[in-house]
Amino acid sequence: MPRAVNSVASRARRKRVLKQAKGYFGRRKNVWTVAKNAVEKAMAYSYRDRKQKKRNFRSLWIMRINAGARLHGMSYSQFMGKVKANGIELNRKVLADLAMNHPEAFAAIVNKVK
């Protein structure tokens, strides 16, 4: 009985990986074994960094809120504690946007919680 190798699926798999490696430098874009490793590594990085992006944005929002709060004589932790205590249900993303782009609205929130 002849050996079944399913070359159609094998070629399709290689083509898919090489297509994902398009734009890479040197042999990473056109040599199967090198491209396969590069694409696997890139996929691992992209999975990890989708999680890290959320952390990075939260950190950025906290820095912006802290800077806005300190202009009004409060620290970030004092400000957020008073915001929660007063029942203001604005998340960090919105508060950071207000602190950055609408300082008068942010000042109104600070005056309300003081």
TrEMBL record:
Function in brief: Binds directly to 23S ribosomal RNA and is necessary for the in vitro assembly process of the 50S ribosomal subunit. It is not involved in the protein synthesizing functions of that subunit.
GO biological process: ribosomal large subunit assembly; translation
Top-level taxon of origin: Bacteria
UniProt cross-references to InterPro entries, sorted A to Z: Ribosomal_bL20, RIBOSOMAL_L20_CS, Ribosomal_protein_bL20_C
Cellular component, GO annotation: ribonucleoprotein complex; ribosome
Keywords assigned by UniProt, alphabetized: Ribonucleoprotein, Ribosomal protein, RNA-binding, rRNA-binding
SUPFAM superfamilies: Ribosomal protein L20
Stated family: Belongs to the bacterial ribosomal protein bL20 family.
Any one Gene Ontology molecular-function term assigned to this protein's record: structural constituent of ribosome
UniProt entry tagged with the keyword RNA-binding: yes
CDD domains, per the entry: Ribosomal_L20
Keyword rRNA-binding on entry: yes
HAMAP family: Ribosomal_bL20
Name of protein: Large ribosomal subunit protein bL20
